[in-house]
Amino acid sequence: MYVILVYDIGEKRVTKMLKLCRAYLNWIQNSVFEGEITEVKLKELKSRAKEIMKKEEDSLIIFKSRQEKWLNKEVVGKEKNTLNQFL
Q1: Comparing C-alpha atoms, which of 27, 21, 16, 28 is closest to residue 44?
Q2: Which H helix or E strand runs over 86?
Q3: Domain boundaries of the chain, sorted by first residue
Q4: Are 49 and 17 in contact (CB under 8 A)?
Q5: N or C: which end of the chain has fewer CB within 10 A?
Q6: Is it true that domain 2-67 has CATH number 3.30.40.230?
Q7: How do residues 21-46 score in pLDDT, each as one tens digit?
Q8: What is the pTM assigned to this prediction?
Q9: Integer angstrom CA distances of residue 11 from 27, 34, 86
């Protein structure tokens, strides 16, 4: 499945959440990630994120799509991180 994940995390926890999300998805903008992920990996990501989050203060929002082709993405202005980087 293809997901877009956004989070709003307290300043003291934001670095941990950034590292966690980068391990599973592609960083595209501050607190925004996207990419293909299996249901099992997404469940794992959510479980690990809950360990970092404070339920009363933080939020994590995940938008799901069957595939990237079903999503029309438009960037207005400078794109923070292109996904065509080679590792």
Answers
A1: 21
A2: none
A3: 2-67
A4: yes
A5: C
A6: no
A7: 999 999 998 999 999 999 999 999 99
A8: 0.79
A9: 18, 22, 30
